[in-house]
């Protein structure tokens, strides 16, 4: 098993990409903390699924936009499994609004969940890694829109662009402690956040035509990359982004 006895925290871990990461990590032997802010029943169901398959997982209710809750989340891993090895900053929201239409409240919510949480999550995890020794890994689930403009979803793009620079700078700052920081930038993924696109045949036709592999990613496509990066097979990777987009950034401009 690639992640045997590795202690991993996954924010927004009870649905979409987060759920797939939890299941994939547990299947490879990781001990998982599932962070959630809503739908506790889905968290319980996910933990039951992990345990039924012989894995280990616990849930923690934490609002990742609040540093105090992030402390609680990290401490849950330490109290339950004795240490923290990997933090996956996966939680994210979007408003799908343009520059002219985005309100201050829209902007603050997206930046708090998508970028502020990753910043302080990285800080808190890094302090834990240094305290316990042995290095560690922060994985940020970013987006191709950290680099590729998406008109009509500007706050999300700003947040993901910030995560790109957070990853690069934190990776450089923390390297001397044996701590790695890596982004994963998915393209279009079949998750609830993209349900409106999946429900529109014309949008799906246009989207698939723009993707060289001619399909949306499944959450497992992203989770498998998380497992690789969290394993010893990726130990020399840091301060960079791994793009997992089916080629969409090369196949289309301005979609």
UniProtKB/TrEMBL annotation:
Alphabetical keyword list: Oxidoreductase
InterPro entries: NAD(P)-bd_dom_sf, Sc_DH/Rdtase_CS, SDR_fam
Keyword check for Transmembrane: no
Keyword RNA-binding: no
Signal peptide (residue range): none
Pfam families named among the record's database cross-references: adh_short_C2
Superkingdom of this protein's organism: Bacteria
PROSITE patterns: ADH_SHORT
Gene Ontology molecular function terms on file: oxidoreductase activity
Family: Belongs to the short-chain dehydrogenases/reductases (SDR) family.
Family annotation (NCBIfam families): PRK07231.1
Name of protein: Glucose-1-dehydrogenase
């Amino acid at each position: 098993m690639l992640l045997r006895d590795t202690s991993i925290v996954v924010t927004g871990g009870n649905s979409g990409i987060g759920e797939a990461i939890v299941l994939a990590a547990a299947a490879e032997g990781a001990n998982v903390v599932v962070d959630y802010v809503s739908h506790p029943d889905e968290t319980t169901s996910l933990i039951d699924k992990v345990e039924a398959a012989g894995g280990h997982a616990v849930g923690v209710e934490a609002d990742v936009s609040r540093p105090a809750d992030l402390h609680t989340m990290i401490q849950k891993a330490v109290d339950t499994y004795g240490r923290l090895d990997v933090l996956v900053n996966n939680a994210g929201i979007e408003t799908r609004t343009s520059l002219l239409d985005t309100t201050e409240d829209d902007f603050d919510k997206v930046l708090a969940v998508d970028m502020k949480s990753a910043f302080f999550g990285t800080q808190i995890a890094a302090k834990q890694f240094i305290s316990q020794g042995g290095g560690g890994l922060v994985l940020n689930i970013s987006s191709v829109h950290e680099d590729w403009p998406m008109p009509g979803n500007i706050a999300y793009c700003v947040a993901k662009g910030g995560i790109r620079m957070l990853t690069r700078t934190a990776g450089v700052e923390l390297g001397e402690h044996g701590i790695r920081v890596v982004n994963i930038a998915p393209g279009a993924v079949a998750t609830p956040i993209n349900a409106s696109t999946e429900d529109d045949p014309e949008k799906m036709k246009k989207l698939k035509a723009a993707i060289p592999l001619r399909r949306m990613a499944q959450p497992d496509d992203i989770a498998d990359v998380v497992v690789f990066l969290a394993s010893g097979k990726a130990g020399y990777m840091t301060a960079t982004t791994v793009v997992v987009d089916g080629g969409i950034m090369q196949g289309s401009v301005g979609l």
